[in-house]
Amino acid sequence: MRIFLTCVLLALCFTSAQARESIATLKTMSGQAWVVRDTKTIQAEPGMALFETDLLSTDADSSAGISFMDGSRVSLGPASQMEINAYRFAPKDQNYAFEVHFRKGTACYSSGRLEKLAPEAVRFSTPQAALGVRGTTFLVRVE
Predict the structure, then answer these.
(1) Strand pairing report for 122-125 and 95-110
(2) Which end of the chain, N or C, is less packed with Cβ atoms under 10 Å?
(3) Range of the domain at 42
(4) What is the CA 136 to chain-centroid distance, rounded?
(5) How many domains does the chain have?
(6) Is 37 helix (H, G, I), strand (E, B) or coil?
(7) 2-13 residue pLDDT tens
(8) Cα 84 to the chain's mean position, in Å?
(9) How many Å from the N-terminal Cα to the C-terminal Cα in the chain?
(10) What is the tens place of the pLDDT at every residue in 101-123?
(11) If we measure between CA atoms, which residue out of 50, 57, 62, 51 comes closest to residue 34?
């Protein structure tokens, strides 16, 4: 019975780790930034893994640089908030999604391989508008 319970616990841990695969890394940061993940607020730090549904916020005098698995980059300016709604980069399966919501502040996006392979899968939204990307770089400001 003990072996069975151990196997079940190991299987649950493995399944949970597989389901939450890192999609991006917080590469650079100045000042203070925060990640809201599963209703918990975590102080951000360089090298931190980011996941789907994470909300990244920067303080009024802070900035952050995020690098996604396909090489796409997003830089957030002071007092900014960005939510990662969906991200999939699976070239073998041709399964792509890059959906980000900018709640407020400033951000600069630089495309990676995903935008080149499936430009229709790259979508950005703000409280006022939705954007489809057909270029390599853009800057957005949300008030």
Answers:
(1) parallel
(2) N
(3) 22-142
(4) 18
(5) 1
(6) strand
(7) 554 444 444 554
(8) 4
(9) 59
(10) 999 999 999 999 998 999 899 98
(11) 57
